[in-house]
């Protein structure tokens, strides 16, 4: 069993690495950002409550996100483990996760923290990012670093690619502010547990994936 947490500022490469891990180790990628965007699009109660926070680049309140993750972890596809991408983002979330896992005699095995020293690079990655909105696909492209074969269309299914409404310079500033306010305490929480491994998100995805595999002992 391998239970991983991926942390890092927006654009650090968490999603890309999570997709690779999912492909190789067949572990579900549980992205709270993706789950919240789906809830918002479906117009659920949760989606309606979360929308204003998300649109402003602010964190959605802990109790909403914690409930959503608890439900997701009960889906029955996590027997071999899971990859949490974008959760926990606060100490309260980290504590709630520990409690949830303890109930099932489970634990987190590694927390991979992706860092990118040059924040200009995050801007470039985020503002050039396009993704496939088709359910179950979610492939991510970049206008210069990873363009699709046909401009504006997903390589896998030809769906028209979309840009996230919060992937703008203005919203990125707010999202980074939230990361800098809350992430250090979460990292400290997991450091105390001896679970943190730093990843250099400045490097190209293949090299970073090598670091990831080393960190998880593969
Ligand atoms: P992401 O796709 O991880 O960048 O998340 C997009 C947005 O969803 C964030 O800017 C938050 O508004 C919200 N969000 C995602 N995960 C969390 C979380 N663990 N706690 C609070 N808000 C979250």
Write the layout of secondary structure elements.
Layout: E1 2-7, H1 14-25, E2 29-31, H2 32-42, H3 45-55, H4 62-73, E3 81-85, H5 91-103, E4 110-115, H6 119-127, E5 129-131, E6 140-142, H7 169-192, E7 196-200, H8 205-215
Parallel strand pairs: 1-3, 1-4, 2-3, 4-7
Antiparallel strand pairs: 5-6
The structure holds adenosine monophosphate.
Pattern of helices and strands: EHEHHHEHEHEEHEH
Summed up, the helix count is 8
Largest sheet: 5 strands, parallel
Q: What is the global morphology?
A: globular
Which bin fits the share of residues in helices?
40-55%
Radius of gyration: 17 Å
Query: What's the mean pLDDT score?
Result: 95
Give the strand content.
5-15%
**Poorly predicted ranges:** none
> Kindly, what is the distance between the CA atoms of the first and last residues, rounded to a whole number of angstroms?
13 Å
- What are the bound molecules? adenosine monophosphate
Structural class of the helix and strand makeup?
alpha/beta
Strand order of the largest sheet: 2-3-1-4-7
Strands, total number? 7
């Amino acid at each position: 069993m391998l239970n991983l947490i991926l942390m890092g500022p927006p654009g650090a490469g968490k999603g890309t690495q999570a997709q690779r891990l999912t492909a190789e180790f067949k572990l579900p990628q549980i992205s709270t950002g993706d789950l919240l965007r789906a809830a918002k699009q479906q117009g659920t109660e949760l989606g309606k409550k979360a929308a204003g926070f998300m649109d402003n680049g602010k964190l959605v309140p802990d109790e909403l996100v914690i409930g959503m993750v608890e439900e997701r972890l009960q889906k029955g596809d996590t027997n071999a483990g899971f990859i949490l991408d974008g959760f926990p983002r606060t100490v309260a979330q980290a504590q709630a996760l520990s409690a949830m896992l303890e109930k099932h005699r489970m634990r987190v095995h590694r927390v991979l923290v992706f860092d990118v020293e040059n924040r200009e690079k995050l801007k470039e990655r985020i503002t050039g990012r396009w993704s496939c909105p088709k359910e179950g696909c979610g492939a991510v492209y970049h206008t210069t670093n990873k363009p699709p074969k046909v401009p504006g269309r997903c390589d896998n299914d030809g769906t028209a690619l979309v840009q996230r409404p919060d992937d703008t310079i203005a919203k990125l500033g707010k999202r980074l502010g939230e990361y800098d306010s809350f992430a250090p305490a979460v990292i400290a929480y997991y450091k105390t547990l001896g679970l943190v491994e730093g990843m250099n998100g400045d490097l190209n995805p293949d090299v970073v994936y090598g670091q990831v595999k080393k960190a998880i002992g593969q």
